[in-house]
Amino acid sequence: MVASSSSASSIKRGELDFSNPRREWRRLFSEAWGTFLLVLAAAGAGVVGALTGKVSPAMAATAPGLTVMAVIYFMGTVSGAHLNPAVTIAFALRRNFPWMRVPGYLVAQFTGGLLATLFLCLMFGKTGKLGATVPGDGIGNLQALAMEVVLTAGLVNTILGTASGARNIGTNGAIAIGGYIALAGFWSAPISGSSMNPARSLAPDLVRGEFRTTWIYIVGPLVGAIIAGGFEWILKGPATREG
Fold first, then answer.
1. What is the spatial distance between Cα 158 and Cα 148, in angstroms, rounded to a whole number?
2. Residue-level pLDDT at 23
3. Are 196 and 148 in contact (CB under 8 A)?
4. Quick one: CA torsion of 150, 78, 162, 61, rounded to 10 degrees?
């Protein structure tokens, strides 16, 4: 009984901290740092693989999933570990996250992704297209777009189904979300690069100055997030009020 009461108190305190406007700077730093680590692993796998030939497709698929898992454990209670504009928007659509906080989160996420890509560029140049996500050989743009839509819908439903309000926290969420990202990469990376994240894809394109397929990785995840919101309504009913 004592342990249960302590756990409930800790959760409530975390919810209050998450809503405290005076600590928004801490949450924005957390999102930038977490997204930096995610993009460093996701794009870095492509860069190091091209540089050394010692990163297999399975390694490249697993790296971002395990990184997201670790980030949820160490900072999920701070910012919610969104790490992805599509996720932040999905939480806002479900009214778990205030729309007025969305722009700050998006800026933090894109900044973290850009800094990670710049770090890779400074270290290794534009090797391996800086880990950019592009349609695979023989794959059309619309095929890649459809894949990103479906993959993101599945990811966002996994997140909405395991989150506490607008926060990705705890063992269940970390394993489910990290596992989904890794498994999606195992089979779909050769099709679209399994980005599911505009911040992850836009940053390498900005640094290398190549935007021919960038739209796929912005439109796809955003449409997928909206579809996931609709599926969440079917599964659980109307959206909840902001916390």
1. 15
2. 83
3. yes
4. 40
pLDDT category, 18, cuts 50, 70, 90? confident
Residue 1's pLDDT band (cuts 50, 70, 90): very low
Dihedral of CA 117/118/123/126: which sign? positive
What CA–CA distance (Å, rounded) separates 45 from 217? 18
Q: Specify the DSSP class assigned to residue 125.
A: T
C-alpha torsion 225→70→77→106, nearest 10: -40
pLDDT of amino acid 238: 78
How many C-beta atoms lie closer than 10 Å to residue 228's C-beta? 26
CA distances from 68 to 2, 54, 180 (A): 32, 22, 10
Q: CA–CA separation, 39 vs 133, rounded Å? A: 11
**Rounded Cα distance, 231 and 237, in Å:** 9
Is 159's pLDDT higher than 70? yes
pLDDT at 160 over 60: yes
* Residue that is written with structure tokens 């599911």 in the block: 196
> What is 137-191 written as a DSSP string?
TT--HHHHHHHHHHHHHHHHHHHHHH-BTTB--HHHHHHHHHHHHHHHHHHHHHH
Residue 201 pLDDT class (50, 70, 90 cuts) = very high
Q: Report angle CA 82, 43, 56 to the nearest 5 degrees.
A: 120
What are phi and psi for residue 120, nearest 5 degrees?
-65, -40
Reported as a pLDDT band with limits 50, 70 and 90, residue 8 is: very low
